[in-house]
Each structure stands twice: as structure tokens, then as C-alpha cells.
Amino acid sequence: ADIVTNLPMKDFMKFHSETEGLATISMKTVESHISQYGVVLLDKNRKIYLFLEKPAPMELYLSSMAQRTDLFLHTNIINTGIYCFNKKIGDILHETGLMDFGGELFPYLLENQYDLYGFVKNYYWLDCGNIQTYMWANWDLLRHYAWPITPNGKEYDGIYVMGIINSGQNITIAKPTCFGKFVKLENRVKIKELTSIGSNVTIGEDTVIEKSVIWDEVKIGAGCIITESIICNNCEVGDNVVLERAVIAPNCKISNDRQIRDQTLEVGQQF
């Protein structure tokens, strides 16, 4: 899955058992009241009467007109994509052939008067299916926003480590940051806040890394400046390289003195 969440799963399952509905949908409130999140019509027991994903403005208008005094229209609740079903759902899926839960299955169940419920809580949830939100997810875990989900390893005052860091002289490590196993930092390396370093990574003298994610088996040369970038597995970065909002795919090699800003290197590319 491409989401990070600390959804209280025990409470979610308990709610589903108590309502005895066919399905329960995990939901959470968001600050924005905009149509990209969809709308849901609930009663006070969180039973769902209307469910529209990313509705058009006309659908929003019609849904609001259908409101009853005992129902509540919410335009700031999102479906966070975790579902709990009664075992009868297997027969329904087999009979109908429906596969798209949000676009097909849930509307079908409501039209046929099956009981659906929304588990609505305020918990951490982030879809990290693109580069920007992937970065945010890494930063959020370091900042404990998704507690109790944290980086791997043992925490020492905001710095997570999975093994001993082999470091040279005058090293600076800010917090929060995290490190995998077998990390080597040469003299005067600066690891600034919100940086995640994987395992088997070597970083050369005087290199500065900030708000970046470095995967495993990476070698970074001396004098580099790396900011808000992602370096994937098995990459080699030369000396005096500048990476700014760059994404370096696996097995890439970057020569000395290169600058890459707002750019993505493809798998195995040499630059």
C-alpha cells in the first residue's frame, strides 16, 4: 500500500462488530471543504446514506438537497481506504463482478439498502504515492506525527540508529534524523534535520545533506550539497555534486561537479 496511517485498528474493528453492518469504511476529517475529497451523508450513528467520491459540483448540489433533518452532510471527510466487511461481501462481489470499491461497490450497496457505516476519527493518514507526499511521510515519521509509527532503530534524543555509525572528526548530526546499518560519515559531514539515511551508505568529507532520503548501498562523494532529494539504491554520487529537489533512481552514477535541480534521473542513468 502507498499510505501511512496510525488508524486505531482495534477501535475500527470493534466499531464494525458493534454496528453489525455489511461494511465499515475508515474515514477522517480534513480542514478543507473541497470536492476533491468527496462527500458523505451520515446519521448520528455513522450510518452512511450517500457516498460520492470526487463529486462534480452538480452532484454536490443534489446531495445537499437530499438532506434530512436527522442526517448530516459532510464535505470535509475523506475515505482513507481501509475497509472491514461482513463475509457476505464475497458472494456479492462474485455475483456482481464489481471491483472499484469507491466508484462501484459502495454505491451499489447503498442502492440495494445494505448497511454501510463510516468510522470517523481524527488520526494520521497520508497518501505517499507521489514524490512530494513520500518526502512528507518521511519527515512526519521523524517528527512523531504518526506516533506510534516511527523510523526503524533505537532513538537517542531524536536520532534513530540501527547500528554503529562509523564517523570521522567534527561530524554534525541534527535531529530528527535516522540511520540504517553500516553508515560511514567522513570528516566534517553535516547531516541536517529531517534526513533519512539507509544502510551501507558512505558519505564523503564536507558533504551536507538536509531534508533528504538516502536509500541503501549508496556512495556519496566529498563536498556535495544535497537538499530535499531522494537517492535510491545502488547509486554513486561524485564529488562536489549539488542535488536540489532531485530524484535519483536506482543504479545511477553522477560524475563530479554536476548540479541537478528539480530533475529525475531514470534507472541506471549516468549523468
From TrEMBL:
Family matches, as InterPro entries: LbH_EIF2B3/5, Mannose-1P_guanyltransferase, NTP_transferase_dom, Nucleotide-diphossugar_trans
Compartments reported by the entry: Cytoplasm, Cytosol
Sorted UniProt keywords: Cytoplasm
Nucleotidyl transferase domain span: 1-141
Leader sequence segment: none
Record-annotated EIF2B subunit epsilon/gamma LbH domain positions: 159-259
UniProt xrefs under Pfam families: LbH_EIF2B, NTP_transferase
Designated name of the protein: Uncharacterized protein
Protein's organism: marine sediment metagenome
Lineage: unclassified sequences, metagenomes, ecological metagenomes
